[in-house]
Amino acid sequence: MLLAYMFCIYLFFYRGGGTSCNNTDLESGTKDTEPKMTEPSRASSSFTTWMAQLGAIASIICAIGGAALFASVHKIEEGHTGVYYRGGALLTTTSNPGFHLMMPFITNFKSVQTTLQTDEVKNVPCGTSGGVMIYFDRIEVVNYLVPSAVYDIVRNFTADYDKALIFNKVHHELNQFCSVHSLQEVYIGLFDQIDENLKLTLQEDLTCMAPGLIIQAVRVTKPNIPESIRRNYEMMEAEKTKLLISAQTQKVVEKEAETERKRAVIEAEKLAQVAEIKFSQKVMEKETEKRISEIEDGAFLAKMKARADAEFYTAERAAEANKLKLTPEYLQLMKFQAIAANSKIYFGSKIPQMFVDSGPSSTKASDAMDDLTEQILDLD
């Protein structure tokens, strides 16, 4: 576009200058050498000149319009918010990521990042309460800006708000911290708390001064201290390390001895428990044998008792049966049967008396025996 604009200017001046020179030559001394131009040719030449001038003007207008359009179109990257200035005054309009238009030449814009960004504050001097000057090489402050708070923060602290709100505050807070603490505390004792304390202090101040600017994290490097003091600290740390190693070695030895003692106690307890278990097992075995013997003895006693009871009952029942069965008549019958079974024969009137007692019933028995003997003899 710029080349087209320059080309049109060149055509305008070249065509116009050439025509004027030719007319001057024609009016001056060239009348004798060249023939005069006719009226139609002069009109045609004037029209050509006028058209060239008109084309140059149109080209200039197009070039200016294109430049204005090019200057009015701008792009806001993702994660940024655009703010606009007109004549140095901040406009209330903000824009989101994308392509936008603005009034060219009198309006300009700045892109403000709203995503996470890390501001590095380098070489921060700090004097301790003892008068020793130390330097923090690098302090990183991770922060982000809420998009809705961009206008207020830019209006109050400009687009470079981090210089006023972060860099200066970090310098101030670190110097405040160092001024009330000794070198020992800053370098060793409280160094692990500097990050968190600085973050909390910055966030408290920003909540009051610039709501919408959020501090996510603060990272502080180890400060640089004078070389002589640093060597002393290194020697002290080396001695502490040796002492710590010695203490840890002693603890390890004590721990090993304690472990060995516990192992011996555990082994003795294990043996005692094993012996106790074996003794209990033997006692249980003996008790089991005793119980089995008692059960067997009880069973044998019950068996023998049952047998004796059975024999006693049998004898008792047999005695009762015999008592009922062995009547005098039955005994006489058995005697007669025995006599009958005998192969010897006795004769005489006194023979029955040899088997019976003399008494009141002896006569009846003798009579019965006589009758029975006669019957037996008849049968024979």
UniProtKB/TrEMBL annotation:
The gene is ERLIN2. GO terms for molecular function: cholesterol binding; ubiquitin protein ligase binding. It is a single-pass type II membrane protein. Keywords: Cholesterol metabolism, Endoplasmic reticulum, Glycoprotein, Lipid metabolism, Membrane, Signal, Signal-anchor, Steroid metabolism, Sterol metabolism, Transmembrane, Transmembrane helix. Its main location: endoplasmic reticulum. It holds the Pfam family Band_7. It is found in: Endoplasmic reticulum membrane. The keyword Lipid metabolism applies. Belongs to the band 7/mec-2 family. InterPro entries: Band_7, Erlin1/2. GO terms for biological process: cholesterol metabolic process; negative regulation of cholesterol biosynthetic process; negative regulation of fatty acid biosynthetic process; SREBP signaling pathway. This is ER lipid raft associated 2. Residues 71-237 form the Band domain. GO terms for cellular component: endoplasmic reticulum membrane; protein-containing complex. Residues 1-18 form the signal peptide.
